[in-house]
Each structure stands twice: as C-alpha cells, then as structure tokens.
Amino acid sequence: MNDYKKELEKILDKAIENDATDIHLSSNSKPFYRVNGSLTHLDGDIELTDENTKKIAFSILSEENKEKFLSQRDIDLSFGYKDKARFRVNAYHQMSKISVSLRLIPQKIRTIEELSLPQICYQFAKATQGFFLIVGPSGHGKSAALASIIDEINHNRHDHIVTIEDPVEYIFKQDKCLIDQREVGQDVQNFHRGLREVFRQDPDVIMIGEMRDPETISSAVTASETGHLVLATLHTNNTAQTIDRIIDTFPPHQQTQIRVQLAANILGIISRRLIPSTKGSVINAVEVMKANAAIRNLIREGKIHQIDMVIETSSDQGMISLNRSLIDLVERGLISEENAELNSNNISELKMLLKK
C-alpha cells in the first residue's frame, strides 16, 4: 500500500506545482488534471490499471470509509496533504471499476481582494443578521468565495462562527473569532440536524457548505430570522433561478410562507463564474444582487422574473448584472466575446450591448 501512497503523492505534488484545480483518476487512463479550466495530462504520469486506481483510492480511505464506500458505491471526504493543501475527494464506481475525483483546496484562504470579488462583499461581511448566498455552476469557486468572506469576518469581528460542511474544505485559523467546523457524517449526522443543534451553541455566524434539501433551506432561513448571519452556497446559475429553486423546493401550500420569510431576510446573492482569460488563466465574472425594497417586494409577490431588471438598473447600489460583468471583461481585453457568450444567461442582450 505504501507504493500506492507514494504514487498518489507524486500525482498530488504535480497538481499543486501546476496550479491544477482538479485531478481525475480512472482505469486505463493517465491521470487528468484540470489546469486553467481544461483537462490535460501532465508529463511523467503512467496509465493507471484497474488495480492501480483501486489501490490509490483505498490508500486515501480509512477502514470505516472503505466499508462505507464498498456498500454505498461512492463516498465524499476530504483530507490534508502534508502542509501543502487539502483535497476534497469523491470516489465512485463506473462500469464496475473505481474512479476518483479530487478537488484541490489551497492551504491559504485567499482574500476578497485576491479573488477579485466585488467590493460589496465587504458590506455583506459586516452584516450581523440575514441570509447571504453564493451561487454558480459546479467548479466555479463558490467555496473559495464563501471562505474569503468568512475569513474577512474572522479577522475583523469578535464572533462565534459555526460551519456545517460535507466535507470540511478550507481550514480556518482562528483570529478574532471562535470558529467551530463540523463535518457531516463525522461531527454531525446531517445538515438539518446540525442546523437544529446550532442554536444551542451560541453562534453569531453560521456557514452551510451547501443547501441540498427543503429541511436545510427552511432551517437556514429560520436561523437568519432569529438574529444570526447565515451564509451558504447553492448550485444555481443566477439570482432569479436561485430564488425560484428555493421556493420550488417546498410544496405549494408552504411557498407563500417561504417567500415572505425569504423577502424579509435575504441580504444578497452573488453568482460567480470562472472564465478562461486571454492571459492564459481563469478570471472572475459575477452577478451581484443586494436586497433592497424593490427586490424584497418582487420576492414577496412572486414576480421573480422582474428581478433581473432591478439588478440591471441598480448599479448605483452596488448591483451588477452578469452581462455587464462580461462586457467589462471583454472591453478590457481579458476574455473573448466567444467566452462571454458561452457564459451569458441572455446572449441576445449581451450581443446588443456589445454593439453599442
């Protein structure tokens, strides 16, 4: 097993050296690394056999996790690698063979400034109560953005922060805040139970790694009503889709209540995209919604489709539409028009604005 641990370490070191965000290990293939948004092989790797892939996967898993993996057929976990990085892991079966996907989580939590997030993030980090979400497609930096805001709070406030994650990704180093990080399956049974218990732990700030079900969403909104700042991520593409997703998660007879709760407690939503840059890396494009009276009224009245117009016309309040963010990047020569179109939620509007 030690030989396979050494093989894994070579792969992890190579990913770190080449700034890869993800690693994919699969039978009858060399390892794939995601570098600057694209999958590629790197020099020196050998093709993995079924046995190689299985042994490398098992070298990551504890005996308990190995049993769970073999019975469930897939498993999520995370682990620290030396003092270099952490990795989030999903091991799974495909065609009766084992594959492994690893997401690299840098040891250092990057700041709001370093991630080129909008300045309004500093305002959200000062809030003491309410509900704040970071959304976007999978692999577009939601966790990194959320961690940067939590760490901003950590360095500037004297609060108790409780995180509920599956698995724990970024490890926060306590500064002015007390931070407790709870991993689902290890420290707490599930997100819903963690949120139910958190009220007995005297938190000021609650971070939810990902909202996945109505119970978690309902508990998160309720927590924001009771004097807590709640921050979470969701796999949606923009503000309107996020609001719709939250409301549609509930049965029809509960949707009026959740609309009223959400309208009263939502602080803002940031949608993040990582887009290939003309400079050879990836760059940040964002949509920013800051809840104002108009936004709250539209949510309460169920007129979610009108939210985009409020965002578009409220730049003086710090709001940014995704198309405006994309156009700014195109005009600065940082992304191509083609990549702007690929990431736009409204291509016809984007083309029209680019022609002006």
Would you kindly provide a written description of the structure presented here, covering whatever features stand out?
This protein has two domains: 105 residues, Beta-Lactamase (2-Layer Sandwich), CATH 3.30.450.90; 236 residues, Rossmann fold (3-Layer(aba) Sandwich). The protein is built from 14 helices and 13 strands. The strands form two sheets. Strands 9-8-10-11-7-12-13 form a seven-stranded mixed sheet, with helices on both faces. It has a six-stranded antiparallel sheet with strand order 3-2-1-6-5-4. α1 packs across α2, α7 packs parallel to α9 and α9 runs antiparallel to α10. The radius of gyration is 21 Å and the shape is globular. The N and C termini lie far apart (62 Å).
